[in-house]
Amino acid sequence: MKLTVLGVRGSIPVSGKEYNEFGGATSCILVETAGQAVFLDAGSGMLKAPRTEDKKVSVLLTHTHADHIIGLGLSPVLLSRHDVDIYAKTRDGLNPYEQIKRFMSPPLWPAPVEVYPANVNFHEFGDSLELGDFEITTMESNHPGGSLVIKLKCEGKTIVYATDYEHTDEKNDELAAFSKDADLLFYDGQYTDDEYEKMKGFGHSTVREGMKVFQKSRARRLLFVHHDPRHDDEKLREMEKNCGDKNASFARERMLIEV
Ligand SMILES: [Zn+2]
Ligand SMILES: [Zn+2]
């Protein structure tokens, strides 16, 4: 599997030279095999997606908070004439199509999804899914309004994407078991310990808690994601030092990873 990190900023996109190293685009990671392109979330990072029309294209949404879907509207994925499958879980009585439509229709957005060149099919995202080369399972995260932790298995390798996740001891145990022996774990490291004290219940976590899950899961590599929009490169480098493990670091936009 080849991974391209297209966006790792949380909550709101940011720009400016102080964000150059880690990047300002919101959640989007592209996972590719020879014949498939699977996007994990569709944040503003999706605008920089490479051409994927020659592959079977799927978009797996952890949830539909704006920072995870704002890239759809101008992404090459919807602006190309091909089939796209979007998976999300029904929330608040709204199916995946209704959730995207609520955001991508006037007065919030000028063009409904139907007018794009791509032929978009919406699907309910359940507990498990066979998707060509990929075997996918999900776990409910701990996040306001709900979010999914996504596990992809392919070519004998395992990736777990746990963004928009707030820790509890019980949930950490569940996530560590879900991520057991994964080759790569993405984890929500939005807050410092001090910030977390003021932001409890907002649905995000810390480096300290991520390291606990990482150690317990025995995953091979950890990358923190969902960087707080108020954290510049200097702050993120300082937070990264607290990982204290050569296999744990903060994800950077434009990273290419072979798993
Ligand atoms: Zn988010
Ligand atoms: Zn969220």
General description of the model:
This protein has 259 residues and is an alpha/beta fold. The chain has one domain (2-258): Ribonuclease Z/Hydroxyacylglutathione hydrolase-like (Metallo-beta-lactamase, Chain A, 4-Layer Sandwich). It is built from six helices and 14 strands. The strands form two sheets. The chain has a seven-stranded mixed sheet with strand order 6-5-4-3-2-1-14, with no helix packed on it. A hairpin with a 2-residue loop joins strand 7 (128-131) and strand 8 (134-140). Helix 3 packs across helix 5 (207-217). Bound molecules: zinc ion (2 copies).
Name the shape in a single word: globular
Bound molecules: zinc ion
Query: In sequence order, what are the helices and strands, one letter per element?
Result: EEEEHEHEEEEEHEHHEHEE
Main sheet properties: 7 strands, mixed
CATH class identity: Alpha Beta
Radius of gyration: 17 Å
Instruction: Order the strands across the largest sheet as they lie in space.
Output: 6-5-4-3-2-1-14
| Count of strand segments | 14
CATH fold field value: Metallo-beta-lactamase, Chain A
Structural class: alpha/beta
Instruction: Detail the poorly predicted runs.
Output: none
Helical region count?
A: 6
Write the CATH homologous superfamily: Ribonuclease Z/Hydroxyacylglutathione hydrolase-like
Helical residue percent band: 10-25%
- Indicate the mean pLDDT: 97
Any idea what the CATH architecture is?
4-Layer Sandwich
